[in-house]
Amino acid sequence: MSAADIVAILQGAVTTASLSCIAIVLGLPLGLLLAITRWARVPGLAQVVMVYVSVLRATPLVTLLLLLYFALPNIGMPIGAVSAAILALVMNTSAFNCEVWRAGLMDFPKDQYEAAQAVGMRSLPRLRRIVLPQVFRVSLPGLVNEMSLLIKVTPVLAVVGVVDVTRAAVRIGAETYEPLPPFLVALAIYMPIVYAIVALQRLMERRLARAQAAE
Amino acid sequence: MNSSAPSSRHDARPVLTLSHVSKSFGSLLVLDDVSFRVHRGETICLLGPSGSGKSTLLRCINWLERPDSGEIQLGGVRIGITTGGLVMTDRDLSRVRTRIGMVFQHFALWPHMTVLQNVMEAPVQVQKRPRAAVRDEAEALLAKVGLSDKQDVFPAKLSGGQKQRVGIARALAMRPELLLFDEPTSALDPELVGEVLAVMRELALDGMTMVVVTHEMAFAREAASRIVFLDRGRVVETATPNAFFTAPASDRARQFLLRYAGNDGRRVAGLEAGSPT
Amino acid sequence: MIRDFLVVWRERGLLIDGLENTIVLSLVATTAALSLGALLCPMLMSARASARLAAAAFVDAMRCIPFLLFAYIVYYGLPSLGINLDNWRAGLAALTLYNTAYMAEILRGAWAAQPREPIDAGYAFGFTGLRHFRRIVLPPLLLSAAPVVGNQVIQIIKDSAFLTVIALPELTHAASSIQSRHYIPFAAFITAVLLYWMLCLTVEACVASIGRLAEARR
After folding, report:
1. What structural domains and CATH numbers belong to chain A?
2. What is the spatial distance between Cα B108 and Cα B128, in angstroms, rounded to a whole number?
3. What is the three-class DSSP state of B216?
4. Coil, strand or helix at B130
5. What is the largest CA-CA distance in chain A?
């Protein structure tokens, strides 16, 4: 395996990293929006969100990706591989994030919310200043967990031609007839990143448990 | 006044003998050269401050904890170590344990079985007794502790006092020679303590051989044949309840009765102002 | 659009075969992963540091590796070491091995959450060895672990779809070949999505009924 091969894998890593970041940045607020819609029981929309989340959590990412990539152009919305990949990742992660946010929202003590209502705070500031900071703190471990899951699922983007770490490794292995070394390089890229995120999640869980015990 | 001799109405053969039992957890000495005997029909109450090793001692009797040294004999048979000095096999240990019943502080009922199934489980599965006969006996025992109507209920739906009464029935179903009680009422709400103590009192009167670790001083005074007082792992004093509560021989026992027994102990010990000493 | 779905209906044999393969893959992998996980679990909790650290290293490794990469390694990488597996065996091996780690961790968590006293009571009443495990330990453990195991089963079903990249004829692969032959991507994949959804709802219903059993005893 040559230096050029390693560079190719690292380029794939950049693709993986940037697509993951975009998906995380878009998926977090979208998940929150979905969760609030269900939590606030917006008539009509809440049920739609419930079905949407249920279906998306049950759908394998590869199936969703193929659906978007092949079906959208067919019904008049042309879409490239990268856009389809981002869309699939965002749809997937927002559905899981929704459930994490929703658990945090449901955990939120109702009397605090009512107290804010009683002193005359209007809906949006109430949400922003009272509810969200605490819900964010409680949901953080779950959201970080979801980030680690997202990274672990990015290799699937290769099926629509996006050259990520895994696809680069597979290609090099096919060209050099030595599949194992590029795979090991790929492992050396994924594992520390995922491990760091999991360690971060465990740290947050411990902090949260301590803070909750102190309350 | 120290008394290790059984009172006259009890059988002279010891059911349980502890000789020089010691145990440490790491560097902490929990039991220090503990020896005493229990005779048929006696009710021994193990009293002492928290951390005195009472529960550990009880758990050593049926080998849930292994003593580091010393001997424990049930009706002349050594528990845990064979006569050859080897560690007992699981099967032999199991056989000894079926002769000893145990009632736990947090009831320890098996949550996936109904009340009746809990009582029947060990006699059928371990003692291999016929199911129909065990069922009859189990139903009779549940009637005896006043829980016939709860036979087919799962333990989660019972109150603490009810759970403990089931625990007692479950232990009795094994037809044990000896019953061990590990702080049986400590986890109960105060108003539920009485119903459990009543069952225990009746068992004592019926002649059951019992070793009870408890903080219920009134019960100890009423129902015990002998008090064994432990402090920091040592047997400091053994005496009849009367002797122990009115005129404890050791300073440690006196301190204990004043400090840990609280109002209950003061009254029981006759130390309340105005009562005769 | 309706025409597209009619084509899917005509090709339903392929889809049903794919669905069957997905179900078989998932069931076999789940059973194997649970059994192996149950064997690995005591190692995770072992007092012997060598066993415990080895088991923990395996679990952590599987937790940090993307499943698809692992499947590729098993299918394309192992032949370099002399182990040649066809796509079925490789897929099943990857799915099983990967999830063994997760099942072991799930069982360990469920075990840690079990109260000690009823287990002690089992020993005090004379239960030993396998009988103790089967009658005293296992039932409450399974009841408490069921929801988390259920989630893992759903994960296994979704991971099985990844195996389409090594040409395993499971559901997504079937939908792919229908869409490439008839150019009906929407109908084909939406049908696949709906079928996955139904599988997931079935698993959730099973977990819910076990949950009702557990509730009665809680």
Report:
1. 3-214 (1.10.3720.10)
2. 22
3. coil
4. coil
5. 71
Is residue B3 predicted with pLDDT exceeding 50? Answer: no
The yes/no answer on whether domain C2-216 falls in CATH 1.10.3720.10 is yes
Is the pTM higher than 0.90? The answer reads no
User: A201 is written with which tokens?
Assistant: 């999640």
Among chain C residues, CA nearest to B108: C118
Q: Quickly count: other Cβ atoms within 10 Å of residue C51's Cβ.
A: 15
Q: Does C212 touch chain B if contact means CB atoms closer than 8 Å?
A: no
Q: Tell me, what DSSP letter sits at residue B8?
A: T
- Determine the Cα–Cα distance for residues B122 and A119; give it in Å rounded to an integer: 61
Both tokens of A145, joined, read: 């967990």
Q: Which residues have CB under 8 Å from C162's CB, separation 6+?
A: A60, A62, A156, C67, C68, C71
Nearest beta carbon to residue C117 from set B98, B108, B122? B108
What is the dihedral sign for C-alpha B148, B149, B154, B157? negative
Residue B133, both tokens: 């006969």
Could you say which of C79, C185, C197 has the minimum Cβ distance to residue A71? C185
Return the DSSP state at B206: T
- Does an interface of 3+ CB pairs under 8 Å exist between C and A? yes
B residues 141-170 lying closer than 8 A (beta carbon) to C: 154-156, 170
C166 vs chain A: nearest CA distance in angstroms? Answer: 11
Sequence spans of domains, chain C: 2-216
CATH topology of domain B14-99+178-268: Rossmann fold (3.40.50)
Chain A partners of C195 at a C-beta cutoff of 8 Å?
none
Contact present, B82 and B40 (Cβ < 8 Å): no
Rounded to an integer, what distance in angstroms lies between the CA atom of residue B122 and that of residue B110? Answer: 11
Question: Hey, is the C-beta of C2 within 8 angstroms of any chain A C-beta?
Answer: no
Hey, what are C146's tokens?
């069921």
**Cβ separation A67–C185 shorter than 8 A:** yes
Strands B100-103, B178-182: pairing kind: parallel
pLDDT band for position B261 (50/70/90)? low
Q: What is the pLDDT of residues C63-94, one digit of tens each?
A: 999 999 999 999 988 888 888 888 899 999 99
Q: What is the CB neighbour count within 10 angstroms for residue B223?
A: 21
